[in-house]
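To fix ideas, we now present one chain and its tokenised fold:
***
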Amino acid sequence: MKRKEVILFMTVGTGTNLNSNEENSESHAQKLYYTIDKIRPNHVVFFASDKSKETIKYIEKLFEKDNDEFIENEDYQVVTINAIDDLNKCFEVYESKIWEFDFKDDNDYDIIMDYTSGTKTMSAAMANCGMFYSKDLISVGGDRSTGEVSRGTEIIHYQNIYKIYDKFALMRTRYNFNANRFRACIDILNYIIDLNIHKDSLLNLCKSYYAWDNMDFEEAYDNLRKVDVNQMEFTEIKNDIKFNLKALGNIMNSKSVNLKNCYILASIINNSIRRSEEFKYDDAIARLYRSFELIAQIELTKYNIKSSDIDVSILKQNNVSDEFINDLEKTREDGKIRIGLEKDFLLLNELGNDLGKYYIENNSKIKNLTQKRNKSILAHGLDSLTQKDFDEFLEIVLNLSYSLDKDMKKFLKQTKFAKFDLKLELNKNY
């Protein structure tokens, strides 16, 4: 396999603590030459101020001394930095050259960035730029008993900054987590290698929320049980995770059908709220519509009535009018009577149920909202819905859910996904 060409980026200073500018430049050139000789790059890019450019001429002489040549625009190039104490300007100069080699040139290069020389600002900017673009960073160390690295003691240090990358990845994970991008979190976490970060628990948390967001309660429960909330990464969301685990546990294990259904309902409502936070109002209202329908279905189960298979004898036992029953009989198909959202609530009203009465009392508003939903691009039409549509629909659904069960606010709290505090105080401990 063909070896990649190596491009060496070098900041160029003027040297210090010598008797003349010439001695400064010669001494500094020797240190830069040492690095070039050890790295053996195909091309060098010097980043220098007008004052420090003279140093490069002495590097040419050192090559000549070794019976070699170092030719400008062939073996090296010089990029002038005018604002040597402006971090942003320095960063932009380095960045432009990275783009030139990585994206404008068709060849494939390995870029090594030596930030040892130059002003402190030049060095800091190069280190940051190298980290941002995932380039190899090197610095030259050695005996500093005289205040700077003594000739003959130079050692090239390749900077292993995986911990910095991992902390950056951890913060990206936290931001993506708060934005409900759990699949992205999983992809980012898989690249973390710092053993001090409890990656496995973080992965399990993200896998759990990803599954829960897709209504796979079993997978969500299995993964959330593997999260060790006592690890420091979960300090700020520890209690929320415990609530979530309790909610999923009830969905999976509760012997009470009503309790299980109420937690599922709360999960769907919170799911719709998350979609609205992402400005996906058509998607959010589609979930609210399902919540609306589920509320009626849950309430009907208290009468042992299934919307998917109406038992007329139960309706008669509960004094439902013959007119209503006859109307239902007209819809019987394959031996079964199946009813939808509107008929669910009308049946509840026939049963003298408060949810049915609420539906009748707010019929005009509810019909307007359901019609908008039906015209949505995610239902039967091509219209797009708005935040106002969502807020109005959510108000109806919440009012009905509170009437459905006195503990619904608790269920909603326990099924709400945790959010990290992004003020970064927690990161002081990493």
In short: The first helix runs from residue 21 to 39. Residues 270 and 416 are 6 Å apart (CA to CA).
